[in-house]
Amino acid sequence: MNFYKKLSPFYNLAFFYFAVSFVLRIVLFFHPITQSSFTFLESLKIFSLGLLSDFFVFVVASVFLWLYLIFISNSKYNKPSGYIILSILLALFIYVASGKSIVTEYGGALPEIVLIFIGIKTALFALLLFLPKLRDKIRYWLFAFVIFLYVLLILQNGLSEYFFWNEFGVKYNFIAVNYLIYTTEVIGNIMQSYPVIPLFSALFLVTGIVTYFILKKSRNYIDEIPSLIEKIKITGIYIALFLVSLVAIPTLAKTENSKNVFVNELQANGLYKFYLAFQNNKLDYFKFYKTLPNEEAFNLLKLQLPTISGQSTKRTITSDSIENHKNVVLITIESYSAEFMKAYGNTQNITPFLDSLAQKSLQFTNLYAAGNRTVRGLEAVTLCLPPTAGESVVKREDNKNKFSTGEIFKQKGYNVKFMYGGDAFFDNMQDFYSGNGYQIVDKSSFAPEEITFSNVWGVCDEDMYNKAIKVMNGEAKENKPFFNHIMTVSNHRPFTYPNNKIDIPGDIKSRDGGVKYTDYSLRKFFEMASKQPWFKNTVFVIVADHCASSAGKTELPLDKYRIPGFIYTPGAKPVKYNKIMSQIDIMPTLFGLLNFSYESKFFGQDVLKPDYKPRAFIATYQDLGLIKDNVLTILSPKQQVKQFDLQINTKPGIAPEYQIDFNEIPMTTEKTNLVNETISFYQTASDMLKEKKYQK
User: What is the arithmetic mean of pLDDT over 49-70?
Assistant: First the structure.
């Protein structure tokens, strides 16, 4: 029984972690975004296997607690061992501080972090060595701090998982990993989106209370420090559990195989999901996905792109008409779902301007976003290739000198710019666009008087459009056509924007307000643009980067990828294009309208050509989907393939071309031709990038 008490820091913290995880699952189970009902067996699986997974994850996460506890002793402060250890710590501190240590080679903040850690460790060791009468008190407060830190991290993780679910409807994924990189924007977003001071005040208060009770039940460990034999026993037990956990955690993850994605997400342990996301944000298609012989894959692709030859997508696009070098303004709108618009069934009148503009444009009613993040949307309209596994090309190291829409415009004598109201450093946009020949206009380009409102993401859309008008007026004087790609920022959490612009106040942080203000800003932009001499000689392309949410019952819920998109040409007759198409087809279709002749490597096609075969690509960072012939085919890691029959849920009062809700019925009989076609698209796109065949 006395030895059992020596384990108290572990089991008391473990019990608290299980309690927090259980409560979190209950909350997420009944969360509004969890659009599903669960059978008894599914519920049992969520909570039983989820708890088991939590246990093994906690064991692994306790490694630092074990290391701290196992080295608590009094004997190490005896002479001469205490002075020897202190000398070693001081020498190590000087070595790292010299700037010539091994950690310096890694650069970044690592040397400073290591130096601070060693400095604190050295100072604390010196205190315990030279102040033996205060040793017990110092050790107690250090022990209390370690317990406090674990409790805080457990609670903080619980809150983070809740807010992540509230935003995306899943446990941690690669987006959470990215959030750790872009801390300025993300922390700013949190500060502006949530009541941070009350939230963190409550967090620290609860942490303090819980720490008090755990400390009360666990302090016997330092009151009677375990003997060497007891520490060996503790270490033996811990190492055995640790090794079992390393096998058990991935094994339990394999049981997350329900057809209902919410069951899998609720069962999963958030920390392990984060680890997997960190490991898998770069995926080698040829290692993880089902493949065909490369020659066969390109031969299948040739059925879709008849004029290609060999293992490349290079081909010649020719037009029988004279090229029209009109100015082009491409506006990608942040997080703009098709369901926000009136035609798709929205009754809140939050997109009045876009509703009216769509009726004057070439309108693509059946358009799908390539992914569920801004970088995927930017990749789709800039590179016009399917979304490959892992991180977007925008954020990869090998992201420069690609064959891009900007390159085509430059070949035609255009000025080419990327305009963004925030810091283009975010999401690697500056590196990507500058590396592909675009000039950058971002928040750093604004004079103070040009900014009337900004939040953590950047200046409001009105300020961005005012700046864009100034830039384009300057460009128009150069007697060269211009291509300007504008990325909006206002329709993003925290959804703050200037007050007194629309009938939804800008400080109540409403998504509907963000949508309506974005629409309002576009109207103001077009009002300003229509007064400029270059307006009638300009084509405007308006498309969402992705939908507002990607959460759904299935891996790739179709309604969460349906986006608005249209091309407005002043004076042109309005047209509806109702066939299914992909975001990657937008710019090749524009080039067709402008009668461009050019050498192309694009996977995207001019959908107005008679040889276009309707299909769309939708993907997460690891699930790669093709919609064709009312079937959704999904390729996943470990060579997995799933197919779903798409059955439309017709909603009354909405025209057929605007229906977006589908039931995805798992297919028992595989349509091999569609599986192979899906493989051919994604495999050849991956091959083109991997072998650097997609360079300009």
Answer: 95
